[in-house]
Amino acid sequence: LETLLALIKAEQKSIQVACYRLSHPEIICALIQAAQRRVRVTIVVDNLDTQDKEIKNLLAAGIGIYFWQRKWFGTKPKMHNKFFIFEQSIDDQKLLVTGSANCTWLAQETN
User: What is the CB neighbour count within 10 angstroms for residue 40?
Assistant: First the structure.
């Protein structure tokens, strides 16, 4: 968690996020602060999150959020990815951070 937060705080250009569940308060806060620094933040989440207060806070901050529509596919798969793409990160390089834990408090504290 600490590494991810440091990367979000250090990013200067853009952050792209795909995460099945996104509700961890520190991650939400860091993404909002990044947007306030004029970092372009774009997020894709599963459509289960559409009513979460954290998602509403991100939308209110002007962050672009796309909701995975299960109806696009006959088998109704979940958007179960968990990754962050940083455009200008360590040593001005692009960086992909991926893992298996969701961006929720429970997942970050127990995984």
Answer: 14
Look at the chain and count its residues: 111
pLDDT digits (tens, 9 = 90+) for 47-61: 765 567 888 899 999
> Residue 37 CA to chain centroid, in angstroms?
16
Whether 104 contacts 96, CB under 8 Å? no
pLDDT of residue 35: 97
Q: Which two tokens stand for residue 3?
A: 């590494």
* Cβ atoms 13, 87 nearer than 8 A: yes
Closest CA to 37 of 18, 60, 61, 19: 61
| All residues at 6 or more sequence positions from 56 whose CB lies less than 8 Å from its CB, including other chains | none
Distance, in Å, from the CA atom of 89 to the CA atom of 31, rounded to the nearest integer, reads: 15
- Regions of the chain with pLDDT less than 50: none
pTM: 0.83
DSSP lists the bridge partners of residue 42 as 16, 64
